[in-house]
Amino acid sequence: MIHSLLVKAFIYFIMAMIFIYVAVQSKGQTIWNPTTLIFAAVATLAFGVAVRLLNKYFRLKKKKH
Fold first, then answer.
1. Engineered SS bond to 19: which of 13, 43, 51, 53, CB 3.0-4.6 Å?
2. How far apart are the first and last CA of the chain?
3. Which residues cross the membrane (predicted)?
4. Which CA distances in Å does 38 have to 3, 27, 29, 30?
């Protein structure tokens, strides 16, 4: 189970990077358009989930040893 947390965290991190890339590519005249903001918000949530999963992974790893 511990390794699956690490894999999930990596997947969420990659997803966040993809959403940031798409947000940067979708900017038009200004960065304040709804599409860019939605992609940035989803990327922020994905980064948050990745950090929480990594935190849980390291806590479980420390608890095992």
1. 43
2. 15
3. 5-24, 36-54
4. 31, 11, 16, 14
